[in-house]
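re: ur question from yesterday

yeah so i grabbed the chain u mentioned. its 442 aa long if i counted rite. heres the sequnce exactly as i have it in my notes:
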Amino acid sequence: MTSIKNKTIWTIAYPIIFGNLAQTLIALTDTAFLGRLSPIALGASMMAGIYYYVYSTLAWGFSIGIQIIVARRLGENKLNRIGVIFEHGLVFVLFLSTGLFLIQHYFTDSILHNIIQSPNIYNSAMDYMNYRHYGIVFVCFNFLFRALYIGLSNTKVISFSTLLMAIVNIVLDYVLIFGKWGFPNMGVGGAALASVCAEISALLFFIGYTLVKLPLKTYALFYFHKLEGWLMKSILRLAFPTMLQKLFSFGTWFIFFALVEHMGEGPIAVSGIIRSVYMLIMIPVFAFGATANTLTSRLIGAGKQNEVIPTILKTIGQGMLAILPILLCCLFFPSFILSVYTNDTTLAAESVSSLFVVCCAAITMSIGMPMFEGVSGTGNTTKALLLEFVVLAAYTFSVWFFASYINARVEWVWSSEFIYGVFIGLVSYLYLKFAHWQKKKI
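ran it thru and got these structure tokens back, copy pasting raw so excuse formatting
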């Protein structure tokens, strides 16, 4: 039994669902507009977008470490330490985001040149990244603010920031990609610039909302505390494995698309569409995973370790209910769903089989992700890293086998997502069931 009610789970999860919609809406609108520009533009933006997010995953992983500690201090009722933790996060993210920007600014050209085989896709990808890399600093700080609010279980603000991002991105996509309202016709570069502007707007909103609405005195937030060396080491000790885990996870996904790109311009165009639909389906999955992480850390902080596994199972059940409507729409109306992303009927028809595959994969992921995030929520982030490393090795082998070794159709490559969901759920459950994690201090 667990003291956590379904209402509590949904109270935390639904704003995160809406918040996760932000990056997905950016990908969706980019795909929908660029899919009407050309298959080359679609494939290039997808490749460059995944490349960009490989870097941002380091900030995502670090923010999860902050989220876990904030949730633990909330459970322990040590509210005045939350601001100290967040300010240490600000210092680290400042240095991290600057470093990531410099790497992208000076080395992206040579990196993508060595990975992308098609000259057309490479040139369009560089048009995209020439603008997109300016957003990395803002994305990193957005992740940190999201972590603060998720850790506090005060996630409604994420919904507001998402709405703002969506509006800015959709409007600017329309005017910059196609050159409307007197703006220049920028094509792929216009989609990238629109995304950067959307990320800037979200960060400004987070800052304003925090200063006006959050009880700064209660959390001792923005009091500019002296840096505590031991605390920074403690944060990094917890966050560094999560940073590596996210880097490996998204880095492997970049390998996935690089191998698909080597299959030809057709398969990468199909995968650009499927990736966008799949991320839409996965919004509730990631949200309930984050909820499982927060609730696990909070329960341990409150000394209720025996409720962790029942709470995660309850979270999984609610997450599966959340993705059911999306899956039914994809399964019964695939042509309509795909028509949102492209007006090329041949490309849409070639994408149907892969769409059905990722629908099946989403079911396994809705079980696996909350289980895995539960492991991270215990504070054992090093063990979480090792677990995912093993699963990613199997996943990468599967992608290589289907894409390169037997050169199968692209839907078989996408079946690797199903394999990942099954294995990450299984190893995470075994860890929570049999390992000694109940007294982990953070």
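noticed a couple things. The chain has a mean pLDDT of 86. also The chain has 17 helices and no strands.
anyway ttyl
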